[in-house]
DNA sequence: CCTTTGCATAGCTAAAATTTATAGCATGAC
DNA sequence: GTCATGCTATAAATTTTAGCTATGCAAAGG
């Protein structure tokens, strides 16, 4: 068994074709076919069922390919270790960010960060928490920025900042008259919510003491994945919603007039940068972490950890 | 970079000698030297400092070798996957067991287990919890049998049975007159304890409400790693100790006469079999698990999980 | 100063990976 | 039915590489 053979079977699995796989490996098709055969011979099992078109992995082949991806992933880390030791913050950094954080955090960060580390190539995906964890474990992402604690083994969390939630109320709402609101006061109101899969949905439901999916019918009408949409729904259709504090930083006075902070104990979410435990490019992630911490206003760092909300996915 | 090259650098690291490493890899020294050089050239960094005798890895070399061990470890799993898929329970199974469990569980298990799976080669080490976790993560052990919960990320626990602790008192002790004892009653007595590093020490200290290392001087005199020694100390020097229930299964009537169960809530420890999350030889471990569960008396399986004691290492 | 020990280098050989060319085998078009 | 077409396997030739033997060279020990 060689690393090259493992690369080849991964390519065949990816492209479901020996010809296409060979092209992408920059070798000829017979070369690739031979190596795959040799590997199959050496382990004593067929990895691909070539009688079907397109070729598909066998049952055991699936498992072997999965393991092969792990092996090659670990192999790549040797090169990363070397970059790391040179103090170079370079190469690709693949980041997953939840949609309730991304638009308020990344635009500010990116320009300064990329100017400071010109050799770094960022790739960013907006994914839900669940997907970020999944892709981290598969090695498809290098790090994630999301709300913690996750209580997920195999994921290391480094808190970046703490962010309160605020209510955003329409002028017609009875709460508009109040200076501050309590979590109880919003529990029975018409509340615009993110759709399922967003950790913030769970947090908001928690803070107003709802159980998931319970008595939502009739009370809530429209689900979206975007915090901006929530705000607009309030603007146009009335009612209220809950926003992360960072989303209101760019609001003008009119908009801020509709924002109501919560009375103590304020609901707070913890935003962390997460990696897998044996991730080696700590310098690059550290650089990103420091950039974020430097840019986030100070009051986002002083919230007490004890106030942080739990949530379920 | 090839898997063979990684094997070679691991061998050089292990034996701190190119000559010895070559022998153990069944190649000549020039062959091995050349491959190490080629690897160093391809990654653009020296892995070993050959100017010292014996050769030592460079700083970056240390990291590369560590990663190389991970890669080869993951590579081995492909062969294991295949055995696994054939339904064969075979090969080596390296098990770590804590010393307060091993002598009461393993002797009974081993003969029947090995008769059922003749192709399996068991290697067993008596290690402390800490060491078992460490070696599991390094891939030097396949599984561990120890007291849980560990609250350790990267370790998966599967409970096997629940075992109460019992007091073992000398005839001279005031507690000898009682039919049952409470945890409070033993707190101020002369208590023979295991030495540090054993999880059971922590559990026993917990159950009699001691903080670690606090006010032990004078009260306790002798530390040992063996439960049998604790019992003998009581037999010969008086006082009392706490034993795991399984250790008294083989006691005769005289000895049982010195055993006192605890009043409810009984202190219970959970014994689990643990592996790393991406361990692939689940069938072999499962076979061992089933063998143990089948052999352990039923009452060890009915304890409620809620009663299980926590502990620190 | 000579021997021993240990790694590196050089030249050679055998094995293995890769290439080009071609065969075989389905599948769908006509 | 037969003829392309698209895919993978096989064969033979070639290049690359891993490994071997022999030897060199430097450092440590007697």
Description:
The structure is a homodimer of 313-residue chains. With 313 residues, chain A is an alpha/beta fold. Helices cover 41% and strands 20% of the residues of chain A. Chain A has eleven helices and twelve strands. Chain A has helices at residues 3-15, 18-24, 29-43, 59-85, 102-116, 129-138, 183-186, 199-207, 227-237, 253-256, 282-295; strands at residues 48-49, 56-57, 91-97, 120-126, 143-148, 156-169, 180-181, 191-194, 223-224, 240-244, 259-262, 268-275. In chain A, strands 3, 4, 5, 6, 7, 8, 9, 10, 11 and 12 form a ten-stranded mixed sheet that branches. In chain A, helix 8 links the parallel strand 8 (191-194) and strand 9. In chain A, helix 5 packs across helix 11 (282-295). The first copy, chain A, is elongated and about 75 Å long. Residues 211-218 of chain A have low confidence and may be disordered. The A-B interface holds A 1-3, 43-45, 59-60, 63-64, 67-68, 70-71, 74-75, 77-79, 81-82, 85, 153-154, 277-278, 280 and B 1-3, 43-45, 59-60, 63-64, 67-68, 70-71, 74-75, 77-79, 81-82, 85, 153-155, 277-278, 280. Chain B binds a DNA duplex (30 and 30 nucleotides) through residues 4, 17-19, 27-35, 37-38, 50-51, 53-55.
């Amino acid at each position: 068994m060689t690393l090259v053979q493992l690369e080849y079977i991964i390519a065949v699995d990816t492209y479901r074709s020996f010809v296409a796989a060979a092209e992408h490996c920059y070798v000829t098709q017979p070369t690739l076919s031979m190596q795959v055969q040799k590997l199959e011979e050496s382990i004593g099992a067929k990895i691909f069922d070539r009688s079907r078109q397109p070729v598909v992995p066998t049952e055991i082949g699936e498992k072997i390919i999965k393991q092969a991806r792990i092996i090659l992933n670990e192999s790549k880390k040797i090169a990363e270790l070397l970059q790391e030791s040179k103090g170079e913050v370079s190469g690709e950094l693949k980041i997953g960010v939840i949609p309730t954080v991304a638009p308020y955090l990344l635009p500010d960060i990116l320009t300064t960060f990329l100017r400071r580390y010109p050799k770094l190539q960022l790739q960013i995906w907006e994914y839900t928490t669940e997907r970020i964890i999944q892709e981290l474990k598969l090695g498809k992402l290098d790090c994630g920025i999301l709300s913690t604690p996750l209580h997920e083994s195999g994921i290391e969390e480094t808190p970046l900042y703490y962010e309160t939630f605020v209510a955003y109320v329409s002028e017609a709402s009875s709460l508009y008259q109040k200076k501050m609101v309590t979590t109880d006061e919003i529990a029975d109101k018409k509340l615009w919510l993110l759709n399922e899969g967003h950790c913030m949905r769970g947090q908001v439901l928690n803070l107003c003491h709802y159980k998931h999916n319970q008595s939502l019918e009739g009370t809530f009408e429209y689900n979206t994945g975007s915090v901006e949409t929530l705000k607009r729904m309030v603007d146009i259709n009335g009612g209220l919603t809950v926003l992360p504090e960072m989303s209101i930083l760019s609001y003008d006075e009119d908009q801020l007039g509709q924002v109501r902070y919560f009375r103590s104990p304020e609901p707070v979410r913890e935003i962390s940068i997460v990696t897998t435990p044996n991730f080696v490019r700590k310098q690059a992630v550290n650089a990103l972490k420091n950039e974020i911490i430097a840019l986030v206003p100070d009051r986002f760092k002083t919230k007490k950890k004890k106030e942080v909300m739990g949530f379920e996915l």
